[in-house]
Amino acid sequence: MKTKTIYEKEILKDIQDLPEPMQEKLAKIIRLLKKEFVLPELKKKSATEEFLSVCGTWEDDRSIEEQIKVIYSSRKSSTKMEKVF
After folding, report:
1. Which domain of life is it from (predicted)?
2. Per-residue b/e over 11-27, b at no fewer than 16 CB within 10 Å?
């Protein structure tokens, strides 16, 4: 079996002489680590990238100050929610 990285080589060297039951336990630990830590992180990145691809990027030729001015000027005061809080 050809290894891709020096770490794979080191791991194989470390477990090579261990008894089979110990190798089985280590395999379970590795699967657990991948399931609990590696895969969720990949899913999280994937979800973020997917969300951003749907949203697109903000495009506006106005300066930030002009955009803020428009946002504030388009706000309206309302007393509808006063009774709720």
Report:
1. Bacteria
2. eeeeeeeeeeeeeeeee
User: Are 67 and 60 in contact, with CB atoms under 8 Å apart?
Assistant: yes
Q: How far apart are the first and last CA of the chain?
A: 67
Q: Could you tell me where the DSSP H helices lie in 1-85?
A: 6-16, 20-33, 39-55, 64-74
For the segment 31-57, what is each residue's pLDDT rounded down to a tens digit?
Answer: 988 888 877 777 777 777 777 777 767
The region that residue 82 occupies, defined by phi over 0 for left and psi between -120 and 50 for alpha, beta otherwise, is: alpha
Q: How far is CA 12 from CA 15, 23, 25, 28, 32, in A?
A: 5, 10, 14, 15, 18
